Amino acid sequence: PAEEAVYRTKMLDLAATEIRARLNAPSKDAAATPKKSSASKPAGRTPKPGASKPELDAVSLRIFDLSNSNEPVLVLSAKTGSPAAGAAGTVEEPKEITLIARTNLDGELHKLFFSETDSRHLDVTPRMALIDAVDADGDGRGELLFRRIFDSGSAYAIYRVTADGLWTLFEGSP
């Protein structure tokens, strides 16, 4: 439980950094979906000192040892806070985030995947709902099974976790 609390805190901090980076640089990478092979990218801009953390609700953290090597893969799912009026008087809809990370040898988190969407953008960026870890190809290593929810329906996807990203093994279409 103590180790899980440490990972939870680190994942929430990484999620807050990603959310702030998306707010500071909108529409640069609007469609965050896993690619056939994705290279690691920097976590984004450093937040301004004193910047508040985004409020996250319905936080779910799942930790897996997919390769039986004591190298945890962490999957965080959450929703940003309730609708609030933005600076221009517009109402910002709550967003649903999915963050996948793994630890390095020093125990620091390394982001593998980040997705952020809301109900108005499901046609571009689906909501990623983690189902579980499965051994889809029978090689003794686990893969992550997701339900991808679009505005037109849903489909399943299986991703292998690599050292620096997610590798798509299967993606259904809605």
Give the count of helical stretches. Answer: 1
Number of strands: 10
Strand order of the largest sheet: 1-2-5-6
Largest beta-sheet characterization: 4 strands, antiparallel
| Computed structural class | mainly beta
Radius of gyration: 16 Å
Beta content: 35-45%
List low-pLDDT spans: 28-33, 35-50
- Oligomeric composition of the shown chains: single chain
Overall shape: globular
End-to-end separation: 38 Å
Order of helices and strands: HEEEEEEEEEE
Mean pLDDT: 81
State the helical fraction.
Answer: 10-25%
Lay out the secondary structure.
Elements: H1 2-24, E1 56-64, E2 73-80, E3 84-85, E4 91-92, E5 96-103, E6 109-117, E7 127-134, E8 143-150, E9 153-161, E10 166-171
Antiparallel strand pairs: 1-2, 2-5, 3-4, 5-6, 7-8, 8-9, 9-10
Describe this structure in words.
With 174 residues, the chain is mainly beta. It has one helix spanning 2-24, and strands spanning 56-64, 73-80, 84-85, 91-92, 96-103, 109-117, 127-134, 143-150, 153-161, 166-171. The strands form 3 sheets. A 4-stranded antiparallel beta sheet has the order 1-2-5-6, covered by helices on one side. A 4-stranded antiparallel beta sheet has the order 7-8-9-10, with no helix packed on it. Strand 5 (96-103) and strand 6 (109-117) form a beta hairpin. The radius of gyration is 16 Å and the shape is globular. 23% of the residues are buried.
Compose a concise summary of this entry.
The chain is about 15% helix and about 40% strand. It contains one helix and ten strands, in the order αββββββββββ. The longest helix has 23 residues, at about 1-25.
